[in-house]
Design brief:
Layout (H helix, E strand, L loop, with lengths): L7 H10 L11 H15 L6 H11 L4 H16 L8 H11 L3
Helix pairs in contact: 2-4, 2-5
Length: 102
């Protein structure tokens, strides 16, 4: 997952099974999980309170807003949007459940 040209098949595998080991790119798996769900919300056009999201992310790892937005949320948004049929009803429910924890 350290490459910028991650195939949709590889991305969705990690989205569904976790970003761990070298695929977490040095970030904690729970941080990658949060980023991936926020990026998925962007992909699926689900609005969320960015300030609440950043507050939650900073409580996990205070690397600053820019890193959370670009290295995290935007990275996952750019990759999830390349997955065909990404925004399934099941995935929308999962994303909304995560957003409810903000």
């Amino acid at each position: 997952m350290t490459r910028h040209d991650i195939s949709p098949e590889v991305y969705i595998y990690h989205y569904e099974n976790g970003f761990t080991g070298p695929d977490a790119m040095g970030w904690a798996p729970e941080l990658q999980y949060a980023w991936s769900r926020l990026g998925a919300a962007e992909t699926c056009n689900i609005p969320f309170d960015e300030q609440k999201a950043l507050k939650k992310l900073k409580a996990m790892n205070d690397v600053g807003d820019f890193a959370h937005k670009m290295n995290g949320i935007e990275f996952h948004h750019l990759h999830s949007r390349e997955v065909p049929d990404f925004c399934t009803p099941e995935r929308l429910a999962e994303i909304n459940a995560f957003l409810a924890t903000l």
